[in-house]
Amino acid sequence: MTAVPAQLAFDFVVQDNRGFRARVRFNTFDADVSIDAGTAASWFAIAAGIGTALGNMTNAKVVSSGFGWRFDLAQEPSSETGTYQLVQDKAILNFGDGNTLKEHVFIPAPKDALFLTSSQDNLIVVDRSSSQLAALQAAFTGTTSPTGGIPLSQFFGGQYKGSKSRRRRVLQGA
């Protein structure tokens, strides 16, 4: 099996007695996250230890601790590996969790198969019966939203949104 490298981040929020907050992030690396079944539990313990050490170093209070990781790090896209569209173009999808939570998800550089193909819709409206949409919803099976529902379980519709890349503003003169 191939090693799965990951970038790790331990994130903390420190607050003073006036309510001002500061964020602290420690970045690290794991050469292979696929070999340890208890990886999340071990990172939780590491984050707790870092939070305690940070709390001992500051005159403020650590009010939030957490960790996150990014894995399956791919190489930069190149013309040899496929055609890549502009990520400024997006599909905007609207979901609910079956309770009260509503969520808007933006899919950059969406594939045409995600949209209805009739000439009337002109590849603008997201197809409710798209297998790609069903796969995204199925990926959340077994998870719970903050309100107790199932994330993305209700699809309320979506559409294509194209946009130009932002222009840089340059001050002219002085």
Question: How would you characterize this protein structure?
Answer:
With 174 residues, the chain is α+β, with helices and mostly antiparallel strands. It folds into 2 domains: 6-71, no CATH class; 90-161, no CATH class. The protein contains 2 helices and 6 strands, in the order ββαβββαβ. The strands form 2 sheets. A 3-stranded antiparallel β-sheet has the order 2-1-3, covered by helices on one side. A 3-stranded antiparallel β-sheet has the order 5-4-6, with no helix packed on it. A hairpin with a 5-residue loop joins β1 (6-15) and β2.
Work out the radius of gyration: 22 Å
Strand order of the largest sheet: 2-1-3
Q: Give the proportion of residues in helices.
A: 10-25%
Uncertain runs are none
**What order do the helices and strands follow?**
EEHEEEHE
Count of spatially separate domains? 2
What key attributes describe this structure?
single chain; 174 residues; alpha+beta; 3-stranded antiparallel beta sheet; 2 helices; 16% helix; 30% strand
Give the gist of this structure.
With 174 residues, the protein is α+β, with helices and mostly antiparallel strands. It has two helices and six strands, in the order ββαβββαβ.
Give the SSE map.
Blueprint: E1 6-15, E2 21-30, H1 39-57, E3 61-71, E4 90-96, E5 102-108, H2 131-138, E6 154-161
